[in-house]
Amino acid sequence: MIFTILKRMGWFVVLVLLQVLVFNHIYIFGYGTPLLYIYLILKMPIKVPRNVVMLVGFLLGLTIDVFTNTLGLNATATVLLAFCQPYFLKMYAPRDVDEELVPRREQIGNWSFLKYVTWCVCVHHSTLLMLEYFTYVGILQILLRIVVCILLTISLIWAVDKLVD
Q: CB of 138 within 8 A of CB of 80?
C-alpha cells in the first residue's frame, strides 16, 4: 500500500516536471502541445474511490496551473476528466475484471485501451482548450488545435504505456 502511494507520488512529480519543463515548450505545426500529465489520472485503478481520483486530479491540475499561470484552467479540465474516468474505464474494461484493475493494454486489450484513452483525452483537451479560448471566433482554428493536441497526447500516452508497463 505504501509502495503504491509512493509510486503514484513519484509519477505525479515526474509528469508535472516533464509537462512544465519539456512538453509545454513543444508546438507541433504551431498548433499541438502534448499534455502528458493526464496519464496519472488515466492509470488510476478501478478500485480507487471517485472522490480520491477527483482530489488527485484537482491537485495535478492546480500544480500545472501554478507553473503555467493559467488560473485554474488545467484544474477544471483535470477534475472533469477525473470525474469521467471511472465511467470510461467501466465502459471499456472487461466485465469479469477484479477490483485491482489498472488500465493497461495487456489487461483490457489494445482496442479497448485506445478507446478508453481517446475518450478521456477528448474530454480533457476539449474542455481545456475551449476554456482557454472562451470564444467561437476562429472555431476552425480551435478545433484544429484540439484535434492535433489529442492526436499528439494519445500517441505519447501509447508510447509511454508501452515503455513503462
A: no
